[in-house]
Amino acid sequence: MWLMKFRLLLLTALSLVAIGTPGCTQPEPAEVPEELIGVWVTDDQRYEGRFLKLEARTIHFGIGGDQATENPIIDVETIQEEGTSIYRIHYLSPEGLEYSQTLNYDPEGEEIRYKNRPSVVWKRVEIEIEAAESARSNLEADGSNPVASLEQG
User: Fold this and answer.
1) CA dihedral 36, 52, 141, 91 (to 10 degrees)
2) Which of 4, 15, 119, 132 is deepest in the core (most CB within 10 A)?
3) Average pLDDT over residues 3-14
């Protein structure tokens, strides 16, 4: 009798290992909607030399000069409100801390606005990828994280 129970238990355990168990796999990383993908800049003089770059699974902050950060996106929430799409993008800082940015996207004007700075309009532009990559490399070599100043202000 105990041998039959042992075999049944062993068969069950092997079956679970073979097919996997629900909830034990890593979730797919969140993806930014296609309409937000690109590099965004503003004419506002307070943000001269800064940019926001959104890729499918990464958010970059150009923080002036040749510095930028690269942050993996962990979640994207979407809300539709009065012809505007509101996106809350959750990401990890270079130190592994979780932050979020809320962006309002207006499809008519093809512009975004940070929720905490609604008067500042950001437009999509074309820039050379090499310049953005160079900025990211310089920041990694420096080891600093100036993104916190953007998030605070």
Assistant:
1) -60
2) 132
3) 51
In a domain, 123, yes or no: yes
Cα dist. 95→1, 92, 98, 136, 151 in Å? 56, 8, 9, 15, 15
Question: What's CA 99's distance to the chain center, in Å?
Answer: 9
Give the total number of structural domains in the chain.
1
12 located within any domain:
no
Model pLDDT, residue 151: 46
Between strands 50-54 and 111-114, the pairing is unpaired
Those residues with Cβ within 8 angstroms of residue 137's Cβ, 6 or more apart along the chain or in another chain: none
Give the range of the structural domain holding residue 92, as residue numbers without chain letter: 27-152
Of all helices (H) and strands (E), which one includes residue 51? strand 50-54
The stretch 73-80 carries a mean pLDDT of 94
